[in-house]
Amino acid sequence: MSNIFAEFVYILITVFWQILTAIISCFIPASRKDVSNEIVLITGAGSGLGRLMALRFASLGSTVVCVDINTQANESTANQIKSEDGKAFAFTCDCSSREDIYRVAEDIKASVGDVTILVNNAGIVSGKKFMDCSDGLIEKTFEVNTLAHYWTTKAFLPAMFEKNSGHIVSIASSAGLFGVTGLCDYCSSKFGAYGFNESLQMELAAAGKNGIATTVVCPFFINTGMFDGVQTRFPLLLPILEPDYAVNKIMSAILSNQRVLLMPRILYLLLILKSFLPQVTYITLSDFFGASNTMDHFKGRAGKKSD
Ligand SMILES: NC(=O)c1ccc[n+]([C@@H]2O[C@H](COP(=O)([O-])OP(=O)(O)OC[C@H]3O[C@@H](n4cnc5c(N)ncnc54)[C@H](O)[C@@H]3O)[C@@H](O)[C@H]2O)c1
What class has domain 32-288? Predict the structure, then answer.
């Protein structure tokens, strides 16, 4: 009994201390880690956020391993890095295939070395309402947006585990926190990516691997082309983000080992509201914020393959 009481007091003090340091850290610029000796693997490096992150890491001196299903776009990212005297390698990989991920991972380990920062970024969206979405397309969405995170992490975590050092970054989405009409497949795949990150960080902590950082990123829509045509009802509160702004925030979060990044900031408030409001009120408010119509004019990437 006294043991439990002692543990309770210890936990209270620890929690108080952690909350206090978190509040203080909001006002003090976080120190940024040096990534010049890191091997950074980014999936979906051929376009959008992946390409921008690859360029940023290269400018900080990292060796960047660009991975994408689109060989031409991926090589163009790697070539741009090399033309600016950076270090980059390009590997074509279909992240919807576990076999392809494991095959490419072995190639990367043999020819580049152990990946020390893994950024699971590749993603797809069908943009179709649930009943219009074919079974194959739903499976593909989960394979790329969720399951790929498992296979890449399985491939590269063991080396991080051995050294108790590394970083796993999951690019999820605000759609991994809030359901949206017309995004059943996408939202649930991103909820999966968010849950994967949360459980993984618990497992790492329980194993005493505090040298391995995790970061999950949940942005609202970003103007990369992936969600072309979507609309926001209140652009002042929930703006469609510019890619450079989003990548600035993502890089800051990674470099300071921030565990969770939601953007824009109002998402933190909406998440708190969601946790205690009655579901019916949550639906009413989501509808008011436009979650029912945001996908009405979705076009996505022009010329993208549909199922
Ligand atoms: N753009 C947004 O509004 C937005 C918002 C929240 C989260 N996100 C997430 O951010 C990440 C990056 O999105 P983006 O806007 O840069 O998209 P994007 O379409 O510009 O880039 C995605 C990249 O992933 C690659 N890819 C797709 N399928 C693949 C596969 N099977 N194997 C390997 N590579 C594959 C594509 O070729 C492309 O280069 C995605 O996970 C996306 O879900 C995007």
Answer: alpha beta
What pLDDT digit, counting tens, does each position of 25-76 carry? Answer: 888 878 899 999 999 999 999 999 999 999 999 999 999 999 999 999 999 9
Where do the structural domains in the chain lie, given as residue ranges? 32-288
For ligand 1, whether the C-beta of 222 sits within 6 Å is: yes
Backbone φ, ψ for residue 94 (5° rounding)? -90, 105
Amino acid letter, residue 89: F
Best residue for ligand 1 mutational test, from 51, 69, 102, 197 (most atoms within 8 Å of Cβ): 69
262, containing H or E segment: strand 260-263
Structure tokens at 291: 């979650």
Q: Residue 133 is encoded by which pair of tokens?
A: 């979405």
The 10s digit of each residue's pLDDT in 180-225 is: 999 999 999 999 999 999 999 999 999 999 999 999 999 999 999 9
Pocket lining: 80 vs ligand 1, CB cutoff 6 Å: no
DSSP structure class, residue 92: E
User: Helix-strand-coil percent breakdown of the chain, rounded to 5?
Assistant: 50, 15, 35
Would the CB of 176 count as within 6 Å of ligand 1? no
Q: Which atom of ligand 1 is nearest to the CA of 175?
A: 6
Task: Give 141-152 pLDDT, tens digit per residue.
Answer: 999 999 999 999
